[in-house]
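Thread: quick sanity check before group meeting

JM: Hey all, I'm pulling together slides for Thursday and realized we never actually wrote out the predicted structure for the chain we discussed last week. Dropping the sequence here so it's in one place. If anyone has concerns about the input, flag it before I start.
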Amino acid sequence: MLLEGRKLSGILLEGRSGGGRAPLDLVIGIGVNLIASPPPDAVDTSGPPPISLLEATGRRVAPETLLATFDAAFFAREAQLLAEGFSPIRAAWLARAQGLGASITARLADGTMREGRFETVDLAGNLVLKTERGREAISAADIFFA
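JM (edit): ok, ran it. Output follows.
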């Protein structure tokens, strides 16, 4: 998540499949810079510089407070997903998406790079990148804005 054009938080998804399409295991990690952010020499310089919530707002938020707020929002979205499917969640995400329509580079898990325009997120949750070769659905990548 960006705040004032700087990276406040990030998400890490790791999955393991059994050879089929669906993952057997999925681990989701979320990091939020509440009090401090990494020093500039400790982060990838191709992405936005880091910022902390304290630096941006002057307010201290305890991890427990953030987690309680996150839990409530997560379970509300989970209930929405179960009741209504992915479409309304996708629409809400797209309404807030950073860089929609922008030129980006996607670094895939195997290290290859794809460049193109961030077109959308499809109904399966894949990033859709418009490239010179056409539209490409990407299930997981590190994203860098031009």
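AS: nice. The chain has a mean pLDDT of 89. The helical segments are 53-57, 63-84, 87-96.
JM: adding both to the slides.
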